[in-house]
Specification:
It is built from 13 helices and eleven strands. It is an alpha/beta fold and about 350 residues long. The protein has one domain: Spore Coat Polysaccharide Biosynthesis Protein SpsA, Chain A (Alpha-Beta Complex). This is Hexosyltransferase.
Amino acid sequence: MPKPPPVFDFHLLLLLTVISAINAAAGAWPITQQFKEAAQFYNSLSCPTIIVADKDGFLCSDQAVHVAMTLDSAYIRGSMAAVLSVLQHSSCPQNIAFHFVASATANASLLRATISSSFPYLNFQVYAFDDSSVSRLISTSIRSALDCPLNYARSYLANLLPSCVRRVVYLDSDLVLVDDIAKLSATQLGDNSVLAAPEHCNANFTYYFTPTFWSNPTLSLTFANREACYFNTGVMVIDLDRWRQGDYTRKIEEWMEIQKRMRIYELGSLPPFLLVFAGNIVPVDHRWNQHGLGGDNFRGLCRDLHPGPVSLLHWSGKGKPWARLDANRPCPLDALWAPYDLLQTPFTLDS
C-alpha cells in the first residue's frame, strides 16, 4: 500500500510567517532557508583538553583556534557550508571557537538559532556590527555586493571581538576548507607582522588603484620601499593584539576618507587593506586560498584551480556555487562545494 502524502504543517507555516514579520519590522532580511543538522565531530586523542569554567572562558582561551566570519541571511548558506568544512577536516574540532559578526540591524537571535540548530555543539558567539560606523565611509564600487557595510567588518575585528582574543583566522563565507585549519592558524607572524595571507606577486598591482592615485606622488609614495603584492582579504591570519596596538582600523579608515574625496580605487574593501598592509605581511602558501572560483566581478565565468596543492577553495568573485547549482548552471568546481551544503529541501520524497 502506498504511503499517504506528508501532512502540511500549518503551525510551522504560521511560525515562519511570524518570524518573517518580526524581521521585516526590524528591517532585516528574513532567513527563509532551512538547514539540516550536521554530524558532530570529536577531537582526536592527541588534542589538548581545554578546561574552562564557562563558555566565555572557552571563547578567550589561547589553546582554542579562533575563527571569525561574517553572518547574514544573504550568505548564510555559504557560511553553514564553510563551518561544516572547517569542522570536518579539523583534527581538534572541539577546540575551535567561532566568532560570527552580524549587522546590528539583523535578527541576531534568528541567526544564532540557525547556527545552533545545525551545530548544537558549536562553541560560538555572535557580535553586533554597527553599520553606521563604516557606511559613511563607503564609496560605490564596480559591484553592488561589495558595498555592503558588513563586507567591511573584517577591518573592525579587533574592536568587535573580546580583548582576550589575541589571534584569529578570518574566513569569507564563500569558501570551504579541505585541510586542518589549525595548520593555518599556527602561521608564524614573526616579530612585527600583523597579518598573514597568500600573496600573488605576479598580479598587476597597478590595476587595483586609479590613475588619480598613481599620478599623485603624495599618495603613490605610500608603496615606496615596499615590495607590494596583491593578497585576497577573504583568508587572513591576524594578530589582534598588534592590530590594536598599531590602531590599524583607523589607518584603513583614513584611506577610505581619501577615497571619498579623490576616487583612488574601484574595488570596495580590498584596496584599503592593500594600502596599509601590502608588502608588510607574512606570505602563506597559495594552497590556503585557491581564490577566484566565482569568476570576475562582472560575468562570474567558470574558472579552474591554480596550479599546486589545495587546502582551501574560495568562490570569490560574482558567481557563488549555491546560486549556480540552484540555477542548474554549475561550474565544474562547484561539485566540490556541494557535499558541504546543509540546505534542507522542502520535501523528502520516499522511493
